[in-house]
Automatic annotation (TrEMBL):
GO MF terms, alphabetically ordered: thioredoxin-disulfide reductase (NADPH) activity
Domain FAD/NAD(P)-binding: 4-289
UniProt source species: Nocardioides ginsengisegetis
Name assigned to this protein: Thioredoxin reductase
PANTHER family hit by this protein: THIOREDOXIN REDUCTASE 1-RELATED-RELATED
Amino acid sequence: MNEYDVVVVGGGAAGLSAALVLTRARRRVAVVDAGEPRNAPAAHMHGYLGSDGLPPADLLRAGREEVAGYGGELVAGRVTAITTVGSTPPGRGHRRWFDLRLEDGSTLRARRVLVTTGLRDEVPDVPGVRERWGRDLLHCPYCHGWEVRDQPLGVLGGTAEAVAHAHLVREWTSDVVLFTHGSRLTADQREQLVARAIGVVDEPVTRLVVEDDRLTGVELGSGHVVPRAAVFVRPQLVPQDDLLVGLGCASRDDGWVVTDPTGLTSVPGVWAAGNAVNPRAQVITAAGEGSAAAIAINADLVEEDLPIAVANYRLGLPL
């Protein structure tokens, strides 16, 4: 069984950023990644200082090369379970260990675990939505608003969150239509939308119209097509936190796993970062959270080793 100081589960921005910090701290690190990044459909990444417009795959490729360059191990696979084990050799104090079972049946052992498995987006069940996801069916105006500025845009959904999204998208263009998809709006919501010159279409949406591999409009139940260049949605964000929940990590009332500012969960030795615990984390945010977690993990390992070093010293044993 291979043993590591830290195993990072998930090789996105958060996981690779943490692995980079830890390998530079001379820790033995493995990054296990299933190769399914959330932003894979997006052609470009925006809002990342120094890398604006970079394809997401290029950022991850560079990150993997950097981690490997400092001795980190990159493992292609999926972690299916994490269990806690303990080790207390005579005279050497106590170290905490975790076993990580992979889908292929192999096991990695680590003193600390960082989970950066992200989230999944549940989008409206409308033909064309999933197919255009990340291209001209968008979710984040901060990520994509500039690229579709001053164009006719739509927002799909009648929830309070979708209404708020329509007001947000209005900052990038004067031509916004909210498609409630048959949901009812309150009188106050309608007045606010009218006040900001945001159109409202109450009919159910039947599909997104695509011509020459480009979204051109939104088709309604009546057959009428409203021309749009891009459509935004507020997907339901579902954390991919099965591993954390399986370890017994505490969650908030909204279902998201609780962490402290460094990413430490309620389970000693287990950290989490990025979209697995923070639905609002963009790529640059996730990278920062991974870095902060790595620094905390390294400090925690040093603290655990101190009494062991003292015990060894007193017994005349090597470190």
